[in-house]
Amino acid sequence: MDTNFYIIEDDKVIQNLLKKIILKNNLGDIIGISDDGAQAIDEIKRLKPDIVLVDLLLPEIDGISIVSDINRSKCKTTFIMISQVTSKEMIAEAYKEGIEFFINKPINVVEVVSVIKKVKEKMNMFHVIQSFKNAIKEIQIYEENSLDKEIETSSNKDKIEKILAQLGILGEAGNNDIIEIILWILEQDKDAGKNPIKYKMTEIYNYLQRRYEQEYQITTNVFAIEQRIRRAVNRALINIAHMGIEDYGNEIFIKYASILFDFKEVRKQMNHIRGKLDYGGKISVKKFIEGIIVSIKNPI
């Protein structure tokens, strides 16, 4: 299947250059081009392109706002941002909102082709295959009559996936990263015997980046890995808060609200959803991961 591209760029010269690079190198098809952010948002939601090349600085709506709007709509699109901006804060904000790669202007043909090929490889590995696996897992989980049915006899990966499914984040982009991290920690703990390993999350993210490059030949950014994971954990917090609001006696809420999060932060998120606070709760990725490990080692 050909990859479909949408280009958002207010410079006609760069529009034509990007289009020429994509078509000349047989990278895919162009299904839309726009220099207007609002128009682009509507068309992307309707056309659902595989990859969007978006300029950071646009006249009406900036690229970060476009990415944020599209991601909130649950449209499965991968973003590559293009800009001459060198501000680390703006680039970090772009990664936080969900872009996969950042290409600096002026446009370099070799760089554009290389980045697009890397994105397509990643999509093939993590989007198509993982989406299929997740769909099968979701069907299996929905057919279970108990939250923890046969959990004692399942593999550690199955146990992790069941917990993530119960939290409603099995389909999130950071789901695979979380699984890889927990499996690695469990393996290290087993080798360490009675003395569990000590680690920092920055070390884990760096390890994950090296593993993706060495084993899967996927080049990714440590900051992008961290943000994918944080978005997934934050979504879990939101889902848990909704469960608590709907039914304070919900089994999943009771089981995970305190072990995966600081319960005070869960309460803040619940009050934010109710409109009582202007801000939601905070997350700790390390507490979330350690909570899942405890749940696996000591199933209730």
Structural write-up:
This protein has 300 residues and is of the alpha/beta class. The protein has 2 domains: 4-116, 3-Layer(aba) Sandwich (Rossmann fold), CATH 3.40.50; 144-297, no CATH class. It contains 12 helices and 5 strands. The chain has helices at 12-24, 37-47, 63-72, 88-97, 109-142, 156-166, 175-192, 201-216, 222-246, 251-256, 263-273, 285-297, and strands spanning 4-8, 29-34, 51-55, 78-83, 101-104. The chain has a 5-stranded parallel beta sheet, sandwiched between helices. It is globular and about 60 Å long. The termini are far apart. Mean pLDDT is 85; it is low at 145-153.
Q: Whole-number radius of gyration?
A: 21 Å
The overall average pLDDT, rounded, is 85
Overall number of strands: 5
Terminal residue distance: 45 Å
Strand order of the largest sheet: 2-1-3-4-5
Q: Hey, roughly how much beta strand do the residues contain?
A: 5-15%
- Helix tally equals 12
The share of residues in helices is 55-70%
Which sheet architecture does the biggest sheet show? 5 strands, parallel
Structural class by SSE content: alpha/beta
How do the helices and strands follow one another from N- to C-terminus?
EHEHEHEHEHHHHHHHH
What is the number of independent domains?
2
Low-confidence stretches: 145-153
Oligomer category? single chain
Globular, elongated, flat, extended or rod-shaped: what is the shape? globular
